[in-house]
## 1
Amino acid sequence: MEKKRHNVWYKVIIAVVILIAVMAFSCCLGSVRIPVRDVIGAVTGLTEVSKATDTIVNKVRFPRICMAVLVGGGLSMVGALMQGLFKNPMADPSILGISSGSAFGAALIIVFNINFSFMGFSGLYLGAMGGAVLAWFLVYNIARISGEHDLNSTLLAGIAISSILSALITLLMTLHRESMEQVYLWMLGSFSSSTAQKTVTMAVVVAVIFPVLIFMAPRVDVLKLGREAATGLGVSASRTTGILLCACSVLLAFCVANSGIIGFVGLIIPHCVNFMRVYKMRGKLLMCFLVGAVFTLLCDTLARTVVAPGELAIGALTSLIGAPYFLYLMLRNLLRERRMR
Amino acid sequence: MSFCFGLAAVGGIVRKRVIMKKVIALSLSFVMLLGVLASCSDQKTEETTTAAATTASETMQESRAETAFKHFYEFTDAYGNDVVIESEPQRIVSVSPVMTEIVYALGKGDKLVGRTIYCDYPEEAASLPTVGDIYSPDIEAIVALEPDLVLTSSIFSEESFNQLTELGYNVAIVIDEESFEGIYDVISTVGNIVGAPDEAAALIEDIKAEVDQIVNDKVDCDISVYYCMGCGEYGEYTAGGDTFINDIIELAGAKNAAADAKGWAYSLEALIAADPDYVLISAWAYDEFTTSENYADLKAVKNGNVIIVDSNLFERQGPRIVEGLKLVHELVLEAAAEEAQAA
């Protein structure tokens, strides 16, 4: 037992080191060539750099990097919890219907050209949050009709609400073709609109939700034994599920409002962490956050440098890069099993 | 780093699960808080720099008031905000092909320092560095050019607008109207913003003179023109009755075949029913239109009256709109001449 705990910590430490290294590395890359010396000067404030360099590194790149880290980590954690709670390796954050809700809110704002700003947050951001809240409200209450928090109902309600909202989005797009490209591009996901304010808000959200998830994580392991066994061990399935789903939804709503729908991360990162032989939920959540953060950050850095000054859709990159790597990990695992037989 | 090692050491020493849980959760939230504080301090420096900038502009305004100079120009942008341009812009980044054309037409091309990848007119613009396109402008590239004004039109996204204004840059979003008259407003506003009001007025007068000349050269000929923006698998797209392209066609003396439509979407059935005399189309859609079965029965196709035009002359609401107008007018004259000959 002791050894396993130590193993997780070593992996966590390595992951943290890698994350910091990738963050530093990404600060130096971008559509504008800035020598590493100037980047270090801008970040530490030790040497004099031009105002443009200072603005680019500290106010354009750094918030974006932090946002990619937070969103990538958040999505992976939610994915891990979905897979743990629903005991389904194919579960990913979108089953809650929140991504569709966000997309619907954003589509409404884009199509009807609703321009407003509240406390520095654009209408698009608030619309996406509103849509997410709406979707979650519907799914949560439908699932609770039976009196208890039922996982099955949540899943089905999530699928149904997702379908309705996706259909509405498609209708909106086809009836307003001139906005179609914009809505679609938003849905494909991008970190290009990350500002310092949004990043700070996201950091606060993650700082609040992260401890909640870590606290409740061991109970998910207990729930895997089944409802009756869990209740016998003092873990209320309904309450645990309810709290976790609410926490995940808040986190997910902020993730999608900030960056659009980035599909692959929540599904595959938990499996990659599984291949790293981290099995218990607490360590898994932590590793998922770190691995998800590194992966999303790498993808975002690629997205904004490869065709600069243009940008690749990050949703496509995460799938293109993640899927082959995932296949590699899976094959390696399978071959190892084969050799052991 | 050392913190993590310490945590691992604590994990080794502390056996009790409950305490371990609390330690982990607390320390992780501590790490998160550190991150939040770090980004907060970034924001604080941002606030102090904005405060510094405001005091700087205030002193500038005061000194200007002393010399009885008002701020340079004030106008209402596409979001209904009042935008004040403090002084004549010396480094302009244009995030809109129309704006690039207008700025060059006003003779202030030397003040431009950046353009979008689609800004292809005039030729001098090609030497400017690019900053992406109007739908997804590259904020880094714009910042690197150190502009004192970002000039664009109302397709510019609110997100990008917020980002740039948060970073402290002046963004002027000039409303583009869906009418021919709107173009005069756009040119005059841009002229005031870049400090060339006289050139703007002169340009508007020139355009108006040419338009008047064309309008007065009315011929008694009723041809219907269809402006094809998209055809084939993607559906039919044209300029409906409420667009400025419709205005161009009407001013030139022809009839817009799609005048009954609103907006930009159309249908193949309506197109066949309208059966226009002339079809104006872009080079990339020409093959599709002339070879596809769908359009084979149109008299424009049969008579070879499908004409390739430069769509930028019609779709950019700038000074070159006159060229588009002339083009349609020539068609009208041609048709009138043919009719006269046949009669």
## 2
Amino acid sequence: MKKRRNIVLLALIFMLGLYFGYNYMYQDHRDIKTENAFKSMPATDLVNIFKANASPEELNKTIEVSGTVSEIDGNAITLDNAVQCSFDAAVEGISVNDKVTVKGRCIGYDDLFEIVKIDQSNLIK
Amino acid sequence: MKKFILTLLCIVSISITLSAQQKFSTKTGTINFEASVPSFEEVKANNENVSAILKDDGTFASLALMKGFRFKVALMEEHFNENYAESSKFPKTTFRGKINDFDMSQISEVEKEFTVSGTVNMHGTDKDIEVPVMIKKDGATLILTTYFVLKPGDFNIEIPKVVSSKIAEEINVSATYLLN
């Protein structure tokens, strides 16, 4: 009787391990849309932070940037020639010279174009 | 007076030719890489925000932000960034080089193969490469595609023994740029 209980207990532990192991292995991606912004600032401020420091604390954080749309290119818009925000789908309802605020994940500084790049963007307003 | 006007015309036409150097660029190029081993979890990532500039003398530069590589499995993306690419310390990978014998007049709607040689800088380490690149024109857009193999060892990226059987030694990289 006791032996049987031990087997059941072992099986239970094994299954629990499997469950947590699986959840760890296949945990969800960050959901930038629902994350609170780490900081909120004008696009030109963000680019200056990266010009001064290649790996500032803003890197890989969810940032809210605001500015005037200077370029639209497929899934991406550029604000004030300073920050490029890429969306997961084609950008609709935005045109050049619009003032917008965008939330997304800051992926770093591109010194070819001297812009900061943000991906997984969402339009705030 | 006639002479003066002629000289002026000459100067103007020379300066026009000098400034006519054309530049093609994109901020939304794509790089894919795959290091999958059969029957193990797919090791594959995609970056759709790669920058590139091509000048009409064949000079080519490209920059990919490492944090911009997206994996299907979140944990794999985390390990890539923290353990292998160390993307906080080395946020970008660059390529600087030249397309050999590049001539704008040879570019047409039909794909033509060139070789591009230059230096890849990844994980803070330089590596010279020479790879084929296909170029064609679609309207005013230049379409560049390339496919090549890189080895993590060449960039001081160590794959621990525990996972080395699940990650291929040779990483297949493909890149596409639509340059305007």
